[in-house]
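Researcher: Next sequence.
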Amino acid sequence: MRPTNEWMEIWKKKREVLSCPNDLNEYFELDEIAGQKLDRLSFGKVSLPSGEILVRDPLVYLNKDEEPYFEKVPAGEFEAVGAVILSEEDCARYAAVRVKFNENKAVRFGEALLGHEDISDLEEGEYFGFNVDAGLGTILDKETLIAFDEFFMNWHEENPEGNIYDDYFADIFSKNYKENPKYQREGGDWINWCVPGTNLHMPVFQSGFGDGTYPVYFGYDENDKICSLVIQFIDIKMAFEDED
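Model: Next structure:
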């Protein structure tokens, strides 16, 4: 569903409110934020054949009727990279995940939206985001969603009493942990999964501190063109500066 002209006018006026208060470039450029050491981890490629992009919890909030964000991104295959918080007291936490569509640097970050949210009364610090109930997030394309939904429905028809994580994905996560143990807990924290029968890749990764609602931002370059997408799982300054 495309946004109405009235909605677009409000969206333009709400640009500052819909902006991320953090410079998300720092997550992928600095070695430390708020006393927390950072590193980067590649989750492999994400396939975006149509440029109609979504971010969702893959096991709870993903079906063929889910809508992509109203702003399209460049079509193609791009690398998904996680910004990882390193800790001696806790496991590695994925603070953010970024997909860059070109080499342009983002000069501002605005929340990715479907185009029909009620943004008229949105205030500073509020966001819509996406819901996580399985402790996982994924980035995918509308075409990938159709293929995923077909796989998901067929799997459940063949395994009516099954649990798709325990009986299917758990082994894939475990295998990836054994092959790529860096910044993963035993059992696995990320995979680069290709929908069976296709060449469509959708990386799946742990969601920061677990279940919750997380904002997704488009990065815009100096020409106000989308150059990246960033999921912010952890506001590092808020989480750790306040704690100190």
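Model: Residues 64 and 150 are 8 Å apart (CA to CA). Residues 142-158 form the longest helix (17 residues).
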